[in-house]
Structures are given as C-alpha cells and as structure tokens.
Design brief:
This protein is an alpha/beta fold and 299 residues long. The protein folds into 2 domains: 214 residues, Spore Coat Polysaccharide Biosynthesis Protein SpsA, Chain A (Alpha-Beta Complex), CATH 3.90.550; 79 residues, no CATH class. The chain is 39% helix and 20% strand. The chain has 12 helices and 10 strands. β6 and β7 form a beta hairpin. The protein starts with a strand and ends with a helix.
C-alpha cells in the first residue's frame, strides 16, 4: 500500500488528467491525499467532484492557506501508509510507474528514499531526460547509491518515493523554504538513509503547465541557500557533500549577486561557502558577477 500526496492550487486545467493517470496505474493499492490551497480557478470544485467518484481520494482544505511546503507536510501527516509517493497537480505518470516504484521499495527496503529518472512534456510531446549529470552517470543503474554526492542527487519530486518514518525522523519539509523545499528534504534523507534509484523514465514534468511555481522569483529568505547553517555539521564532516551542496547553492545565488552584491543576507551565505572546492570560473563569477554575465552573453 502507498499514499500518493498532491498539493493543489489553481491547476484546474491539469488536475483531472493527473488523477486519471493515477487511476490508470497497473498498481492499484493506493490512496490519494490532496491538500487544496483554496484555489480560485475552479480546482476545488473539480477535485471534490473527483472525490465523489473515487473512494481512494481524500481532499483536505489547507490550514491557514500557507503554501505548497506546509501543504505537503499536511498531506503526509494525513497519509495512512508508511510509503509515500509524490506527484504535482500537473505532472504525469506512465501506467507502470507505481508498480516499478513499489518493486524498487520492496527490493531495497533499507532505503529512506527511492527514485527514478524523469522526462519532460512540451508542446512537441514527451522527451526523456538525457543531459543532466545524473542521467549520464546513473545510466542503466538500479540499486543503492553509496556516495550520491559524487555525481549529485538524481531525485525529482514527481519521481520519488519516501518512507514516512524517515520523513518524520529528519523533520519533514522545512516550512520556511518555498523554493527548493523538496530538494532540501531529499538532501536530509540522503544524508541519513541509504538512497535507492532506478534509471527508468516513467514520470514527466509538464513544462508549459499553468501557475508554475518556478516561473516566479523569490526573496532570498525563502530560498534553500539562505538556510545553509542547518547543514553545518554535514558540510564539515563530508567533503563530497560540502562541494556538491555549495555548488548547488552558488548556482541559485548568482542571480542575487547580479542584482545586488552588497546584500548582507547574500554576503552571510557566501561567507560560509567553501570556494576552495569550486572551479576558478565559479569563483570568478562571484568576484565580478556583472562582468562575468556580460562575458558569457557575448561569448
């Protein structure tokens, strides 16, 4: 048995198709927990109608309308089963996705997080993910990743399963983080538990969906790098993790450096980055962010 959790806000064009792709799974021992964030586009009415027709679907109205991170915490808290799968309200699973994920969980029960590769749905149809680092280095891989920081996290929310027990042990999603809250949880699970992965593409991210959170910009204090302090011990004890984590932070911090190099919050975070472990080009872009940006554009 597995609980599927879905945060929902203003996805009226997509949610019915997402529920349908779940109902079409070859593995049918599931429940669906939707936390509805008080949508204004008709999503609430659509999902409640679905619930009257699908007994395995529960709809919870979000407490205090606080956003996607608390919504995910609320949905997992309400989940009946220890095994949790994630799908957003506009993403898609192939019919054998859950069957394959559950088999991975069965074969590697010691893990706290399990995942697969993912693809993209564009106007041109489905496309497999072949260019990201994990798609290259974990090609044809199935099993436990013993040093996930060597090539980086292979996990994406719509292609991940976790243990509710492990989730509770690491403290769940960090409600302070709106952008990168899922990545933050995967990192904490990966630091505490074995990580299982299978190189199959059975889930898809819909690039052109409505109301995409990643289409927006966010203040630094609700962004993952702002909370670098919480990883102080792991960054001190694990050089591979420090190098990888710092690099991911730097990619996300560069737009803020372009905007204002004198931002005290940015300076605080950058002061904790171990630049000695990064390539010279990365160090250069933060020494002269506007010049670096200009150079890369004309190049």
């Amino acid at each position: 048995m597995i609980s599927i959790v879905i945060p929902l806000y203003n996805k009226a064009k997509s949610i019915a198709n997402t529920i349908k792709c779940i109902q079409n799974q070859t593995y049918q021992d599931f429940e669906i927990v939707v936390v509805e964030g008080w949508s204004t586009d008709g999503s609430t009415e659509i999902i409640k109608k679905n619930a009257t027709e699908e007994p395995r679907l529960r709809v919870l109205m979000q407490v205090n309308r606080k956003g996607v991170t608390p919504a995910r915490n609320e949905s997992i808290e309400a989940a009946k089963y220890d095994r949790i799968a994630f799908i957003d309200a506009d993403d898609y699973w192939e019919p054998t996705y859950l069957e394959t994920l559950v088999k991975l969980m069965d074969d590697f029960p010691q893990a706290g997080i399990w995942g697969m590769n993912h693809g993209f749905i564009t106007q041109n149809g489905k496309q497999k993910n072949t260019e990201l680092i994990h798609a290259i280095y974990y090609k044809n891989f199935r099993g436990i990743i013993y040093n996930p920081w060597q090539y980086g996290s292979p996990y994406w929310t719509g292609a991940v399963g976790i243990s509710k027990t492990a989730f509770e042990k690491v403290g769940g999603f960090d409600n302070r983080i709106i952008f990168g809250e899922d990545i933050d949880l995967w990192y904490r699970l990966m630091l505490e538990f074995p990580c299982a992965y299978e190189d199959k593409t059975l889930s898809y991210y819909r690039v052109d969906a409505e109301n995409r959170a990643c289409n927006n910009t966010f203040p630094l204090n609700i962004h993952l790098p702002y909370y670098i302090d919480k990883y102080a011990k792991h960054r001190k004890d694990n050089v591979d993790f420090r190098k990888y984590f710092d690099l991911q932070c730097l990619y996300r911090l560069f737009p803020y450096a372009l905007e204002n190099t004198h931002n005290p919050e940015l300076k605080r975070v950058l002061s904790q980055i171990d630049f000695s472990q990064q390539k010279f080009s990365m160090r250069l872009r933060f020494l002269c962010p506007r010049l670096y940006d200009f150079y890369t554009k004309i190049k």
